[in-house]
Write a structure and sequence with these properties.
Length: about 375
């Protein structure tokens, strides 16, 4: 039996945050800030409170809190393209963070069932206390329906210029730039890209950064070395790469706007007998689980998704408590994970003024064999 269970058995009641505060030697407000993962709490205080929470098996009383605060105790999450691994992974991280805070998670799919409007309606009617948007664009109905700097809304993995909300993303512009520099530094001569629809800010920024760096290096992206996929699927990447590789002078390097396009590009090279990495380098983006599979062993950019989600959830919970807080746009640096699709070759590249030096991880042979 846990310490918390024994305490409940002895007292006949559930432990409250006030009990935890007394045991930790802090105020109840500090316990509440730790529970919502407020970054403003000192590290040693946060660890002391978390240790007490774990020792007593503290369980937030959602019903009592809802009655007292007139809140739903639930957070809405709007997603899209659940077939792409990054979105289920994001949902898992968000769900774990919210569960630790005693919050329920309500999920809507923006692509099916009019998820944006359901989410905005639930927020206005008090069905949820806040909303996390993981796949919005400027054209999303939610963006038009809810447009107040006091609204408890946070964007994750997306940025919408001019929208008055907290926004958390990785530096996709810099990632695209670094991909181009990596190819140039690796001696690639015929550099190509498979892009995607421009409404999504990560795709748009990755392409912009890639083009800018190629132009700065005196190697602007040639029109015939660019393919825009209409979807972000293996099939779309395969078709786009086949068109590129069937050119009279096919590319010797392809940067893909996401990993599924890159996996399709690898299979296109196999179909045409173009050995990777000898005849072709392929780089993707997102580092989904399949990217590390030995069958693909894809060099790609990894977003610090756990940090991004943690920061976004903390910002949202803080805004629910304090609607007038200043809006923040937080950008995280990405990591280039080097694998066999570029010959495991590390090359020197420049530094990002915003994100600092390039972080590169070279995946050892043993690691891919064990996965």
């Amino acid at each position: 039996m846990t310490a918390g269970a024994m305490r409940r058995q002895a007292t006949g009641r559930a432990l409250t945050s006030h009990d935890v505060a007394r045991m930790a030697g802090v105020s109840q407000a500090t316990v509440s800030r730790v529970l919502r993962d407020d970054p403003g709490v000192r590290a040693e205080t946060r660890e002391r409170v978390r240790r007490i929470l774990a020792e007593v098996d503290y369980q937030p009383n959602a019903a009592a809190r809802s009655f007292r605060t007139h809140r739903a105790g639930a957070i809405g999450v709007v997603v899209a393209r659940l077939s792409y691994q990054i979105y289920p992974a994001m949902l898992e991280l968000i769900g774990a963070r919210l569960d630790a805070l005693g919050q329920q998670m309500v999920v809507w799919d923006a692509e099916h069932g009019d998820g944006d409007r359901h989410a905005s309606r639930a927020l206005r009617q008090g069905g949820v206390d806040g909303v996390i948007l993981t796949a919005c664009t400027r054209e999303s109905p939610f963006i038009r329906d809810v447009c107040s700097p006091q609204a408890p809304v946070v964007l994750v993995n997306r940025a919408v210029d001019g929208y008055p909300s907290d926004q958390v993303s990785s530096d996709n512009l810099d990632g695209g730039r670094r991909a181009a520099e990596y190819f140039i530094g690796g001696g690639r001569q015929r550099i190509a890209m498979i892009g995607g629809v421009q409404q999504a800010s990560p795709i748009r920024d990755r392409e912009a950064g890639f083009r800018q760096a190629l132009a700065a290096g005196g190697r602007p992206l040639a029109a015939h070395y660019y393919q825009r996929a209409e979807g972000f699927t293996h099939r779309a990447g395969l078709a786009a790469a086949l068109r590129l590789l069937e050119l009279q002078a096919p590319p010797d390097a392809i940067f893909c706007a996401n990993d599924m396009l890159a996996l399709g590009a690898i299979d296109a090279a196999r179909t045409l007998g173009r050995p990777i990495p000898d005849a072709l380098w392929v780089v993707g983006y997102d580092d989904v689980e399949m990217a590390a599979w030995p069958a693909f062993d894809l060099t790609t950019f990894r977003q610090p998704m756990d940090e991004m989600i943690g920061y976004a959830v903390a910002r949202l919970m803080n805004r629910i408590e304090e609607p007038d807080r200043a809006i923040e746009h937080k950008t995280f640096a990405n990591e280039l994970v080097i694998r066999r699709s570029t010959g495991r070759r590390s090359v020197p590249v420049g530094e990002s003024p915003a994100a600092g030096p390039l972080i590169m991880r070279e995946t050892p042979e043993e690691e891919t064999k064990d996965e």
